[in-house]
Amino acid sequence: MKPLIVFFDGPCVMCNWWVNKLCRWDKKDQLRFAPLEGAIAKDFAKTRHIDLDAIDSVIIWDQTFSYAMEAEATFMLFKRLGGVFSFFTIFAFLPTGFTNGIYRIVANNRYKWFGKHENCPLPDPKFAHKFLE
């Protein structure tokens, strides 16, 4: 099974905090990370006709045909991690409008609440293999 690729907002402090946590929690080494601002994300978006400037979401790609955004991406990630994270997939049964609404509230306020780096920070060297660019 190919690793999931997590396209995330590189300068976002909250996003980087989550990426660092995911690196530690990913005991089966099944996640890879790339900033939405990078070439890999841009190539991914171009082939799928996604306007990265028009979305405000993490994108999770399974490297086949499937990808997800907003709350659905979070549920896809939790499902892949398994274990205790599987518990959180129970919320996937809530209406999509509701879960995406909560996602959008956080996404729209993340810089105000958590701040923004000038550039995407470098990863911890022990997790460098997980970062695609």
What's the Cα radius of gyration? 14 Å
Low-confidence spans: none
Widest sheet: strand ordering: 2-1-3-4
**N/C terminus separation:** 21 Å
Order of helices and strands: EHEHEEHH
Count of individual helical segments: 4
Brief summary of the model shown:
Helices cover 40% and strands 12% of the residues. It contains 4 helices and 4 strands; from the N terminus they run βαβαββαα.
List the helices and strands and how they pair.
Elements: E1 4-8, H1 13-25, E2 31-35, H2 39-47, E3 59-61, E4 67-69, H3 70-81, H4 96-114
Parallel strand pairs: 1-2
Antiparallel strand pairs: 1-3, 3-4
Task: Describe the structure in your own words.
The chain is α+β, with helices and mostly antiparallel strands. The protein has one domain (4-130). Helices cover 40% and strands 12% of the residues. The protein is built from four helices and four strands. It has helices spanning 13-25, 39-47, 70-81, 96-114, and strands at residues 4-8, 31-35, 59-61, 67-69. A four-stranded mixed sheet has the order 2-1-3-4, with helices on one face. The chain is globular, with a radius of gyration of 14 Å.
Give keywords:
single chain; 133 residues; alpha+beta; four-stranded mixed sheet; 4 helices; 40% helix; globular
